Amino acid sequence: MADRLSRGSRSWIVLMLVMMAVAFVARIAFQLPLKPWLHPQAVIQPIPFNHSKHRAMACVMCHNGVDKRAHAGLPDMDICLNCHATPPPNVVWNTAVWEQAVKVRHIQWKKLTREPRSIYFSHREHATLGGIDCVMCHDGMPTSVKPPEKVRVIHMKDCLDCHTENNVSTDCARCHK
Ligand code: HEC
Ligand code: HEC
Ligand code: HEC
Ligand code: HEC
Ligand code: HEC
Question: What does each C-alpha distance from 157 to 34, 90, 110, 134 come to in angstroms?
Fold first, then answer.
């Protein structure tokens, strides 16, 4: 009886070890965050992009909607390939992702700063017509060395404070659909 029980618990231990090994490999392979339950919103971008190393470039080269559309947009692979004929040094560990992106000419960046769908917000209006510097709303981004990992909402209070300061409309219907 005691023998059978301990054999049973031994196979449980083996099963647990196997599951831990699988989780460990999955974490490395898919770059899942360690302890995801502690980082409920951690978002990992497919390539560890470094803004600071690209500071010489104008933002509009990669976010090419800022001067003409509501959305700033995130860059596609063609833009990167202008300079990176081979994968940049620090993505070597992740070459498969880079090569796949080259093949399909697309990188699946995740959009992190976002407003609810019921809000009107336009980059053309603010960055181009209003001449507002990107860092007024995206603090720290130009000098960041790795992508942010959290979803960010710019709250109504921030919109209203700046509108009031600049004598821009604070009518509900301007911002709310
Ligand atoms: C105008 C040229 C240019 C374009 C376009 C460009 N890069 Fe770079 N990239 C560079 C330079 C220069 C470096 C710095 C190399 C160094 O310091 O070793 C670099 C470095 C990198 C690195 C390594 C960063 C690090 O921490 O060492 C990555 C990753 C990278 N680029 C990704 C991209 C991606 C993704 C795109 C497209 C969205 C892109 N680059 C577009 C010029 C460019
Ligand atoms: C070489 C291309 C490149 C240039 C130049 C560039 N960016 Fe980016 N930007 C990216 C990529 C790729 C991402 C997505 C990955 C990340 O977050 O790092 C991104 C993400 C962002 C985000 C976050 C978007 C989101 O979903 O929250 C902001 C804000 C941003 N960039 C602002 C800027 C500003 C401001 C400048 C100019 C100072 C700039 N970028 C220049 C490629 C670029
Ligand atoms: C007045 C505030 C403000 C300014 C100035 C601003 N942004 Fe944004 N940005 C936002 C908001 C709000 C969002 C989310 C928009 C949404 O979800 O509709 C956003 C989203 C983004 C994104 C995510 C992708 C997308 O298309 O939504 C990028 C990239 C970005 N901004 C880059 C820039 C750059 C580059 C500049 C400067 C040229 C800039 N922003 C200036 C407020 C601003
Ligand atoms: C300058 C733009 C702007 C104006 C003007 C504005 N809002 Fe908002 N409002 C927002 C944004 C952006 C959000 C979403 C972000 C957040 O939750 O803070 C929001 C969110 C809200 C929410 C929360 C909605 C939810 O789903 O939780 C309410 C309620 C609201 N607004 C009411 C109003 C009323 C009433 C007025 C007029 C007196 C008004 N707003 C004017 C930008 C604006
Ligand atoms: C840092 C200052 C600043 C912030 C933050 C800001 N705005 Fe604005 N907004 C402006 C300015 C300045 C204008 C007028 C631009 C122009 O000259 O056309 C404007 C114009 C607008 C307009 C057009 C209004 C009209 O009467 O035509 C809308 C809609 C708007 N903003 C929505 C938003 C929302 C939504 C947010 C928050 C997510 C926001 N803004 C955050 C400064 C700001």
Answer: 34, 39, 25, 18
Lowest-pLDDT choice from 7-11, 149-153, 167-171:
7-11
Contacts of residue 44, Cβ cutoff 8 Å, sequence gap at least 6 = 31, 32, 33, 149
154 vs 110: CA distance, rounded Å: 17
User: What six digits make up the tokens of 50?
Assistant: 């470094």
Q: Which residues line ligand 4 (CB under 6 A)?
A: 115-116, 119, 153, 155-156, 159-160, 163, 170-172, 174-176
Query: What is the C-alpha to C-alpha distance for residues 97 and 99, in angstroms, rounded to an integer?
Result: 6
Rounded CA-CA distance 27/75 in Å is 26
Q: Are 99 and 68 in contact (CB under 8 A)?
A: no
Residue positions counted in the chain: 177
Task: For the full predicted model, state whether its pTM sits above 0.70.
Answer: yes
